[in-house]
Design goal:
The structure holds 2 protein chains of 2 kinds. By secondary structure, chain A is mainly α. Chain A has 19 helices and 2 strands. Chain A has a two-stranded antiparallel sheet with strand order 1-2. The longest helix of chain A is centred in the N-terminal third of the chain and has 33 residues. Chain A starts with a helix and ends with a helix. Chain B folds into 2 domains: about 400 residues, no CATH class; about 130 residues, Jelly Rolls (Sandwich). The longest helix of chain B is centred in the middle third of the chain and has 30 residues. The radius of gyration of chain B is 32 Å and the shape is elongated. Classes of the chains: A mainly alpha, B alpha+beta. At the A-B interface, helix 4, helix 5, helix 11, helix 13 and helix 14 of A face helix 9, helix 10, helix 15, helix 17 and helix 18 of B.
């Protein structure tokens, strides 16, 4: 059954789904990135997405009454888009006003915006349709889907695959991925982008050179509301064709972490959002297996927590290395410390797998019925213990990178052992046990040697 | 503050507490002693009301002028909510133009025999004006009838029955279309004595009209046009009905009062949990997840111990749910303190994970296999919190909350850890210089707030629902944020804020039931309250003097330390 999943992951249909589900994360992520760059975190993305999603649906449905059916169907979605984004920007304006003028706490005001978005949509939906759950009684429209020219199909090797992935995607998906490059240009190639980054880096310094900090923050919050609005429109007029209460389902919060995961760069943010889209789509696909659906559904949330930790640790390690670089000057061995950093990342990634093992183990022990009976308790306990052991032995190397320097051999053994076990397990799905053990451990030893082991061994 | 003002404050607080206690008790029992003493366990009702009065006392004494600001904020938010409801109710007067109607021409004269007319004397015809969701709704009718010279006729147009509130007008037209007579209403005498079919005075009657000549006449009827005044009055009345249900609903009967108290207990516990972490300036929103784990653990223990005496098992459940909350609060606490992971995002993610885990265990493990519902089935009676007021679910949790509030106050104001939490909250860097182990304190503040949230989960599971169900908390945790903010993070004021806010929540349910208004309206009010209460600039506008007192209260500890150590 795992083979089916793995085959499915490499299919064009799966990549199509990844792009489709990544869009409503990517769009607000761009907004979150811009506001975080200006030093104001926009917690209200979720509420803004909801209100724009709802406005889009309502406007597109009623535009058929206002302008007649023919015209309504043509301009309805675009009018919905314009008004939906407008409402989201109004909410971000309110957030900016309460934070920047009224000196309200940014985070709590953001929470208020979320509560407002989630409740106001339901209240108005009930007034309009008499239903508290969704707007299925409204004949709402969808944004157009882009059909690619058939000629792409003719391109050898990649043509058909690319055609299946990119054909019939919503226009919002295209807008989302194109906006990454616009935002990138905007941030790094225009005076406004520079002001925005300056305000985020050090507001006092920015103010001292004559940048109006308040105005820049107002603008950045408005733009983040704009992107949240676009994301909301995709939820209700591309991803689905109706509005459900609280349909964004935490995407506005996920969007807050993708910029940190993507290193604070638009392209990195795009990659991070696509990773989330991948996990989302994987959750849907794993749902066909005989395991409780809640487990794969939680994957993106675990991934977020782990990404937060890894990002925070990585930043701390980089800080420490750059401190040492300034301290030791010419004598600093850049190559050596780069290898140590790479190995620490490998340790962290292996810990991620262990954490997933721990969670699966706990789930199996507490819910044996969900995994096919009481036998699952024993299996779950074994998985749990093994994962905890692997987690504990990598922990020291993650919290303090000097341990990797002092005990490089121990670190190497831990890396090779855990990576080897995971590779072996993966390979044994397809190959015989003995072969997979050999290949798994040799490969992981090679990986360790290549990314930094050889430098550490030489320095001894 | 002078001794005189302190005493004045105490007296003021005591009086407001007493007044509220008396008011609630009075409204509940309609002011009659007999009704009160006829209610079983009325002593406990009065006891709980006295505790409510004590909460009011603490609120006034602790917040002083801040109390006015909190009340003002709530009032402003309520007024805004009133306006929104008013706007939504603007269409409520449409009922006067919609509905089933009947018309007839009453006459004692001999009817002329003419073919091709719609009405005969004394024959009732009718229809439905402006029926919603119809392609071509009926907006007016013009029905012809034959009349002879000198016939005395009365033309009636009226609502079909009491359910239809349509307000019609009626006109008598001759063959050329000229209006001979018209009417928009009826007199009381006509309604009550003369025409049995009429429903109310808004029905239209042209009484005793003498037809001038033989011929075909037309009875024309349609709903009266709505005057702006009518629209406004009607919307205002509907909104008033809704807000009366919102503001007086929860104290009208003992069972409604019980619903208020049990909801308040949960909210107070969650509010305390937020007050503790927010005091340390940690924006942890993990209460929801901690609540789910508390409920899950206490539910699992309750289901597996049907024969243990209550006195033994309930403390065990309490301890276990607190521990579960502690551990689930420790995770984001440790991630924040030692790894620097943003607590806001990590707790939000952990909430979703906790909910998913709860659903999974409930669906696959705790639920009886043959059960059609995703619920565990009721807990054994010995594991349910004992009820102290009959016919409600007001349990001994009332006393539990009082004890928890006391211990939270002890923790924050009277222990070294609470002192460190407050210093970290006012200035993290300063706390570090002052030798506070800020990592440990941050972690513990989040974990300890988890304990209280775990208790809240236990109260939901073993006090209110008495089983585990899906969506146990229904986003209660975010409501807890409002409670903590309303109390301005002061643990002694949290009980008041919890009572006030859950009063609105429960009132909203009655509003939804009694009037045509949506429950979510109260969540909109909630958003407005958060915005207004966090907007510090508003303080300087309205209460220039209060600001000094606030800084004094918050910055007190820091000042003491500056004098000693630095």
């Amino acid at each position: 059954m795992f083979e089916n999943v793995i085959d499915g992951i490499f299919s064009a249909a799966f990549l199509f789904a990844v792009l489709r589900v990544a869009t409503p994360i990517l769009l607000p992520s761009m907004g979150a990135l811009l506001s975080e760059k200006a030093g104001v975190i926009n917690i209200g993305l979720e509420g803004m997405m909801l209100s724009s999603a709802f406005t889009g649906v309502v406007v597109s449905a009623f535009s058929q009454d206002w302008f007649g059916f023919e015209t309504g169907v043509t301009i309805g979605p675009w009018l919905g888009l314009a008004l939906g984004v407008g409402v989201a920007m109004l909410l971000s304006l309110a957030l900016a006003f309460f934070h920047l003028n009224m000196k309200g706490d940014l985070i709590l005001s953001g929470i208020a915006i979320n509560i407002f978005g989630s409740s106001a949509t339901v209240v108005i939906m009930y007034e309009l349709t008499g239903d508290r759950g969704n707007t299925s009684t409204l004949a709402s429209l969808q944004m157009p889907f882009i059909q690619l020219p058939e000629i792409i199909n003719q391109i050898p090797i990649v043509g058909q695959f690319a055609y299946e992935v990119f054909n019939n995607q919503s226009i919002m998906t295209w807008i989302a991925f194109i906006s990454v490059f616009i935002v990138s240009f905007f941030l790094y190639r225009t005076p406004f982008g520079m002001h925005l980054r300056a305000v985020g880096e050090n507001p006092d310094a920015a103010a001292s050179v004559g940048i109006n900090v308040k105005r820049v923050r107002y603008q950045s919050l408005l733009i983040s509301g704009f992107f949240a609005g676009l994301g909301g429109i995709h939820m209700s007029m591309g991803y689905l064709q109706l509005f459900q209460r609280d349909m964004t389902n935490g995407r506005g919060f996920i969007a807050l972490v993708t910029p940190s995961l993507g290193g604070g760069h638009p392209v990195g943010t795009m990659v991070a959002s696509t990773i989330f889209g991948f996990f989302d789509a994987l959750g849907i696909r794993l749902g066909s297996l005989e395991i409780p659906p809640q487990l794969p559904q939680s994957i993106p949330y675990f991934a977020t927590v782990l990404a937060l930790v890894i990002y925070a640790l990585q930043r701390r390690i980089s800080n420490r290395v750059s401190e040492m670089r300034t301290a030791s000057g010419e004598a600093f061995d850049a190559d050596f410390w780069k290898s140590i950093q790479r190995i620490s990342i490998l340790h962290m990634l292996l810990m991620v797998v262990s954490v997933i093992g721990v969670v699966t183990g706990i789930s199996m022990v507490t819910t044996p019925r969900g995994f096919g009976g009481d036998d699952a308790i024993l299996a779950g306990a074994l998985i749990f213990i093994a994962s905890v052991v692997l987690l504990l032995i990598s922990m020291p190397f993650v919290t303090d990178i000097f341990r990797i320097q002092r005990r490089w051999a121990a670190s190497g053994i831990v890396t090779v052992a855990s990576l080897g076990i995971y590779l072996t397990l993966l390979l044994s799905l397809r190959l015989e046990m003995l072969i997979s053990v050999v290949i798994g451990f040799v490969a992981s030893a090679l990986v360790w040697y290549m990314i930094g082991g050889r430098v550490l061994m030489r320095s001894e | 503050m002078t001794a005189f003002r302190t005493h004045l404050l105490l007296i003021l607080g005591g009086l407001s507490g007493l007044a509220v206690t008396l008011f609630i008790t009075n409204t509940m029992f309609d002011g009659s002693i007999e009704k009160m003493s006829a209610t079983p366990t009325w002593q406990n009702v009065v006891l709980v009301n006295v505790l409510i009065g004590a909460c009011i006392f603490l609120f006034v004494v602790e917040l002083r002028r801040g109390a006015i600001r909190v009340l003002l904020t709530v009032v402003v938010a309520l007024i805004l909510g009133f306006l929104v409801t008013f706007v939504f109710n603007l269409d409520s007067s449409l009922r006067f133009t919609r509905g089933e109607f009947r018309v007839q021409v009453v006459s004692e004269a001999e009817a002329l025999d003419v073919d091709g007319v719609d009405l005969e004397y004394n024959r009732v015809r009718g229809g439905h004006f402006n029926k919603p969701n119809v392609v071509e709704p009926v907006s007016e009718v013009a029905w012809s009838f034959a009349g002879g010279e000198g016939d005395v006729v009365s033309l009636l147009a009226y609502a079909k029955n009491k359910r239809s509130s349509v307000d019609p007008l009626v006109e008598l037209r001759d063959e050329s279309g000229a209006v001979l007579a018209s009417a928009t209403s009826a007199t009381v005498a006509q309604v009550e004595e003369r025409f049995d079919d009429l429903v109310r005075v808004t029905d239209a009657v042209i009484a005793d009209f003498q037809l001038p000549a033989d011929g075909t006449y037309t009875l024309y009827a349609r709903p009266e046009e709505l005057a702006t005044g009518t629209i406004m009055t009607e919307a205002f009345q509907q909104t008033n009905v809704a807000f009366e249900a919102l503001l007086l609903g929860p104290i009208q009967r003992v069972n409604r009062w019980g619903a208020w108290i049990q909801d308040a207990i949960t909210l107070i516990l969650i509010g305390l949990s937020f007050a503790i972490v927010f005091r340390a300036e940690q924006f942890s929103l993990g209460a929801e997840g901690q609540l789910y784990f508390g409920a899950l653990v206490s539910g699992a223990i309750a289901l597996n111990s049907p024969n243990v005496p209550s006195i033994l098992i309930i403390p065990i459940i309490l301890l276990a749910s607190g521990t579960a909350g502690f551990i689930y609060g420790l995770i984001p606490g440790a991630l924040k303190a030692y790894l620097g992971a943003n607590e806001l995002v990590s707790t939000l993610m952990l909430n979703v994970i906790a909910t998913g885990f709860f659903d999974m265990v409930l669906y696959f493990q705790l639920r009886p296999i043959d059960s059609a519902y995703v619920a565990t089935g009721k807990f054994p009676a010995n594991t349910v919190l004992p009820v102290i007021v009959e016919r409600t679910q007001v349990t001994i949790a009332v006393f539990l909350v009082a004890i928890v509030v006391f211990f939270c106050w002890l923790l924050i104001r009277r222990t070294p850890l609470g002192y460190e939490i407050r210093i970290i909250g006012s200035n993290l860097k300063f706390a570090d210089y002052g030798g506070v182990n800020s990592r440990r304190t941050i972690m513990l503040s989040m974990a300890l707030s988890g304990v209280v949230a775990g208790f809240a989960g236990m109260h939901l599971a073993n006090g209110i629902y008495r089983e585990l169900i899906l969506d146990l908390s229904l986003a209660l945790a975010f409501e807890g944020v409002v409670v903590a903010l309303l109390a301005r993070l002061n643990v002694l004021v949290v009980p008041f804020a919890g009572l006030l806010y859950s009063y609105l929540r429960v009132g909203a349910q009655f509003m939804e039931r009694d009037a045509n208004a949506s429950f979510e309206l109260v969540r909109m009010i909630q958003a407005i309250i958060i915005l207004l209460i966090t907007a510090e600039a508003l303080v300087t506008i309205f209460q220039g003097r209060q600001k000094r007192a606030d800084i004094d209260e918050k910055g007190h500890a820091v000042e003491a330390l500056e004098a000693g150590d630095v």
